[in-house]
Amino acid sequence: MIPIKYILFLVSGVSSFIIFYMGLVNYITAIDGVTGIILLIFATAVSAGTLLSTTYISKSITKPIEKLAENMTEFSKTNKIINKKPINTNIKEIYELNTNFESMGKKVEETISMQNEYVEKLKHIDKKKVEFSSMVSHELKTPLVPILGYVQMLQKQELMGPLNNQQLDAINEIYSSALKLQKLVGDILTTQKLDLGKLVFNNENIQISEFLDLIIKDFTPITHLKKIQLVKEYDANDMLFSDRDRINQVFSNLIKNSIDFVVPETGQIIIGAKLDNQSMQFFVKDNGVGISMDNQKEIFKKFYQIDTSTSRKRDGSGLGLAICKGIIEGLGGKIWVESKENIGTTFYFTIPIHSMSK
Amino acid sequence: MKFRTNIEKNDKDSKELNVLIIDDNEQITKMLTTFLELNNHKCIVANDGKQGLALIQENHYDVILLDLAMPEFDGYAVIESLESKGMLKNNKIIVFTASTITQEGLDELVNRGVSSYILKPIDIDLLLSKIIQSATS
């Protein structure tokens, strides 16, 4: 890049030199000494005039343009128009250029400061929202303590006396509803921690085969009750270093979903794993109603519930899959779904063999 | 867990334990008292940390149930006071909390000398087995 004043001085310098040189040649070759001197004086005056006018032009045009350019550079760095150098000019175009630049700069400055204000406000609201829901879930958990405590005491009939069958049924219903509420509050808290990046992972060595067996065992009561098959498809001997409880939570959420979507008696759910490069790829596969393509895109979003009015009614928070996704991504893995309507659904997720502690 | 509790209960049924419950929520303390008394243990209740601390300094309890989240003088303050007086390890303290304490936070308390912890909502069988475990350890 060449500054404009150099170009001006180069052009005027060369032209004044040529004029002066021609004057000098005329002086030497002139027939008459007086004519020669006049020509020389004239040429000298013209070239001096050229240089002087160049200096003037340089001052009145290039100086303000230089300053304007500096102001613009400064503005692009700081987004602030206040620190600008003052520009005095009599040239109309430069004056307009400067005035327009200043008013544009002021507008940009105002917009940016307004935006910053909004961002601050939003941050504040978001913080309040998190504080509020954390408070709410804490407050919801507290009354659950005596509810669950008394219900458990009543259920153990040796403590508070025998119950008739109707009373026992009622107590069992209260117990399972209270547990659902507890799970819901827990889900909300987990989601919050995921949102805040505050979920802590405790990694340990996991023996995959044994881990899958335990998951199946946890579900035996309900799969027996609903006459659903839950089986393992894995016969290797891999180890994984990751968060056992959190992966268990993922499996548990996925299996519960599958149980809701398969048909009792013929329902089949297969869980398994396969070593794939540096990751363990797990899956939960069912022969349930399947998930439409439209729903497949949405199911990992928070509070999303597939409208199952045509098939069966479900209860749940709509947080299960969002939590699965959050946990898996937190552990450095991925989750995705493959499904065909009326044929079945398979959820896949990967977990790095050696999850990083966060 | 239920199975283990029953075995332990049969072994320890004869011994009546003296339990101090420190919690600001009266419904929770009432439930815990009811449960422990039904299991033939004796309960004393303190509704805040200061009162609880005073009782610990004056009497001996087989087990102390301490809520972490209380207004003003909370469970952490009680633990710190006992620690500074060198009394933390002499007392069998089980902390219980519904707040969002991390596993590391709980482990740290155990390392400092708290004997065990239980998360709210409380599984009463688990609580009883922890009380008996702490009292006899």
Structural account:
The complex is a heterodimer of chains A (358) and B (137). In chain A, the strands form 2 sheets. A 5-stranded mixed beta sheet of chain A has the order 2-4-5-7-6. A two-stranded antiparallel ribbon of chain A has the order 1-3. In chain A, helix 3 packs antiparallel against helix 5 (165-196), helix 5 (165-196) packs across helix 9 and helix 7 runs antiparallel to helix 9. In chain A, strand 6 and strand 7 (344-352) form a beta hairpin. Chain A is 63% helix and 13% strand. The mean pLDDT of chain A is 86. Among the domains of chain A are: 4-90; 204-352, Histidine kinase-like ATPase, C-terminal domain (Heat Shock Protein 90, 2-Layer Sandwich), CATH 3.30.565.10. Chain A is elongated and about 140 Å long. Chain A is an alpha+beta fold. The two termini of chain A are 50 Å apart. Chain B has 137 residues and is of the alpha/beta class. Chain B contains 6 helices and 5 strands; from the N terminus they run αβαβαβαβαβα. A 5-stranded parallel beta sheet of chain B has the order 2-1-3-4-5. In chain B, strand 1 (18-22), helix 2 (26-38) and strand 2 (42-46) form a beta-alpha-beta unit. Chain B starts with a helix and ends with a helix. The interface between A and B is medium-sized, with 22 and 23 residues.
